[in-house]
User: Fold these one by one.
Assistant:
Number 1:
Amino acid sequence: MDKTLNIIGGGMAGSEAAWQAANAGLKVVIHEMRPKVETFAHRTGNLGEMVCSNSFRSDDHEQNAVGLLHWEMMQADGLIMHTAHKHRLPAGGALAVDRDPFAESVTAALKAHSNISVSYEEITALPESGNWIIATGPLTSGALAEAIQAETSAEALAFFDAIAPIVYHESINMDVAWMQSRYDKGETEAERTAYLNCPMTKAQYEAFIDALLDAEKTEFKEGETAGYFDGCLPIEVMAERGRETLRFGPMKPVGLTNAHDPQNKPYAVVQLRRDNALGTLYNIVGFQTKMKYGAQKAVFKMIPGLEDAEFARLGGIHRNTFINSPTLLDDQMRLRSRPNIRFAGQITGVEGYVESAAMGLLAGRMAVAEMTGRSLAPVPNTTAMGALVTHITGGAEAKTFQPMNVNFGLFPPLDGVKSGRRGRKERYKAYTDRAKADWQAWLGQTMLDAAE
C-alpha cells in the first residue's frame, strides 16, 4: 500500500492534517495552488495564512466551547494552536495573533519536517487512487469544485464570506477613542486594554445606519445568491434586519466606560482589535462588508475617531463553498462514493479557523490509522472535537445543513446540572470537565494503539 498521504490545500485544516500525519511517521505531500493560482482573499503563498479575522476567538477552556477546542488541540500537539500561542497578541481573553509571523512560522515548521513536502500546483480533478485529504476551504478552485459537484451529484452549497477592513493606528484620533476590553476582561493590563473603542451618540449612530443602508454595494454575479452564515454577516445586511441590530451585535456599548467622558454612556461603540505585534494595524471588529471601496471609506470615516482613518485593507466579499457532509461523508470523514478521499476544514461545513484546524487534526489522525492498518475508536461526542465531527458526519439535519461553529448545544446533555441562564456557568464547567477527561482518555488509547 502507498504510505504517502496527499493533502490538497495548505490552509488551517490542511496544515494541521499534514502535521499530525507526519508526526505519526507518514510521508505527506501538501498540494497548494498558491501563489501560482491566486484567490480573492489571500495575499501570500504562505501555508496557514489568515484571510479574514486575526482572532481564534475565546481562549477560555472552562466556559467556552471554542476555548475547549483550543485546549483539546494543544493536548494533541496541534501545530496551529501552538503557533497561535507563540504569536499571541493582547485581545482581552481572546486568542488573537500577529497574522504574518503566524503564517510564516506555520510554513517554516511544515517545510522543515522531514516527512513533509510541498507541491505548488492546482489539483483540478478528484484523484482516482492513493490516499487524499481535500482541505481546500472556502475558496476551493472552480475546477475542483465542479469535480466535487459532479461526483456527489449534488448542488454545491454556498454562502458569502465578507472580510473586515484594517486601519493604520497612527490615523486614529485617540482624543476620541480609548483603549479598553469589555468589562476590563483579562489577567494583564495589556489584555484589559486590548481593544480600541470609538463611541457614538444616538444621532451619530442613526446617521451611520442611514449611510450603511444607502451605500453602494458589490453586485452579485448572475446565478449567485446571498446565503450568508449568521456568524459572519456583513454589517449592512445586519442593518437591513433592523436599525438596532448593530447595537446588540458588534456595536453594543455594554461593559465600556468612555475614558474621555466617563459620565456619559455611549449609545453605540465601534471596537477595533490590534492586528499585528507592532500595534500599527487595527481591524474593525465585526465590520465585514460588501460595500464598494469608495463607499467604505466614506461610511467608516463617519465613525468618531476614524474621521481621518487610512486603510491598510478595505473589506471585501467572496464565495464560500461547502459540501453537504451529513449525506456525503462517513464517520471517518471519507467520501462515501470514494473512500480513498477524506474532506477536512471549512469545506465540510464547519465555520472558523479553529474548527477548520480541528477537523484537519482529526482527518490526519484518521488517515494515519487507516493507512497503518489500525482501528481508531470514535472520538467521544462529549468532547469539543467529537461533538463537531459528529454533527457534520450525521448529527446535523441534512436538508437544512449550514456552516456551524462549535458550541455547547452540540454536546450531549449532562444530568444533575442546572438548566437555564442562572446555571450556565456551572453547566459549562461540567461540560468542559467531562470533555477534558474523555479527550485525554481517547488520546491515551490512540497512543497505546500506535505503540502496539
Note: The radius of gyration is 22 Å.
Number 2:
Amino acid sequence: MAASTFWKRRSLRVPDDRTTRAAELTLRQSLYPICLVTVLFFLWGFSYGLLDTLNKHFQNTLGIDKTRSSGLQAAYFGAYPLASLGHAAWILRHFGYRAVFIWGLFLYGLGALLAIPAIISRSFGGFCACIFIIGNGLGSLETAANPYITVCGPPKYSEVRINLAQAFNGIGTVIAPVLGSYVFFNFDEETALKNVQWVYLAIACFVFLLAAAFFFSTIPEITDADMAFQANETHSGAANDQPFFKQWRLFHAAFAQFCYTGAQVAIAGYFINYATETRSNTDSALGSKFLAGSQAGFAIGRFGGVALMHFLLPRKVFLFFLTMCIVFSAPAITQRENTGLSMVFVTMFFESICFPTIVALGMRGLGRHTKRGSGYIVGGVVGGACVPPLMGVAADRHGTGFAMVVPLCFFVGAWTYALAVNFVPAYRDPIDAFAQTDVGVRERDTDEADQKVGTLGGAETGDVEEKAGAKNLEKV
C-alpha cells in the first residue's frame, strides 16, 4: 500500500484541465520549487559560458576560422526551437513541468557523455552534434523553467522572480570563462582537450543526480486551467478567449526574443576575438578573463535590475536597459583599446534583464495558452543560432570590431517590443493588470483541503483534491 502511494505521488502526468491551488501560491509556498528550479538556471548559464570559451579554444586547437567556430552556437541554439516547439512542448502539455525538467536533464547528461569520444577523436563536427543534443536538453529546461518561475508564486512579482533566478544563470556564465582561462588556455593542446573531457564528465554526473532529485521531489504543477483562473482574477484575460493564432502580442515577444538573444549570443561568442583584436597585448587567456569580468557585470546587472523593479514597473526598467544596450554597443564598432572594450562591458551589463523580462512580459494574460505560448517565446532563442554566423562572416572580412554592427541592428529589432509594452495600450494594460493584483500576495480563506492541493500542486489524487479542484473550477 505504501509503495503504491509512493509511486502514485511520483506520477509525471497531470491533467491540464484540472484547477488546483497552484495559481494562488504565496511566496512561502513557492519557495522550495523556485529554489530547486533556480539550480537549472545556473546549469545552463555555466554551459553557455563554457560554449563561448570553447569557441575561441577550438579556433586555436583545431585551426578553424571564426565563421566555422560559430557552428557551436548554431548547433546549441538551433536546437532550442526543436525542443520548445516540438518534443518539450508536447511533454509539457501532455504531462507537466516536472516531466520536462527530467527529460531536459537526461538529454543534457547524454550529450555531455557523448561529447567525450568526440573530443578524443578531435572531431569538431561530432562535438557540434553533441552540443546539439545538449541544446535540446537545455531548450527543454528553458521551455519549462522560465514559465514555471514566472507563474509559480504571486503574479505581480513574476518579473522579479525570473530575473532573480536568471541572476544565477549569470553566475554560471562567470564561472565557466574563469575555468576555461585556467583549464583550456594554460596547457598544451593535448592536455587542454583532456581537461575538456573531464569537465563534460563532471557535468553529466551532476545533471543525472539533479534529474533524480526532481523525480523524488513533490513540486506544484501549474495547469492551463490554473492560468485561465489567474488571468480572470487579474482581469487581464480578455485575449485568453481568443484563438492562439490571434495572440499577436505573444508573437511580437517571440520576435523580440529572437533579435535580442541573437545579439547577446553574438557579442558573447566573439568577445574574446574582440578583445584580442582591438586591445594591445591581449591573448586568449587574458581575453577569457575579460569575458568572465563582463559576465560578472551581466550577473550584477540582473541583481541591480531586480532591485530597480521594486521601485519601478518592470516594463520601464526593460525599456531603459535595452535602450542602453543600443547606446553603448554603437561606439564599440569604431572605438578600440580600453575604450571599445569598456563599451562592450557596459553593453553586457545592460543586457542582463532583457531575456527573462521578455519571457515574463510576453506571457502576461495568455491564460489557457500559457504553456503553448511560452514555447514560442523560448523558441525565439534560435536567434542565437542565426546571428553569430552573420557576425562571424563580418568579422572574417572586416574585423571583429566592425562586426559589432550586426548585434546593434538586432538590438534595434528587439527595441520595438520594449517601446510597444510601454506606449501601446493593447500591450501595456494587460501587463499592468498583473502588477496590481493581490493573487498570491496574501493567503486567502481556504479550508484544509484547498491547502493540501496547493502544496501538492496536483501530484496526488483523491477525494480531497477533487473537492478543492471543483471549488476552484466554480471560481473560474
Note: The longest helix spans residues 27-62.
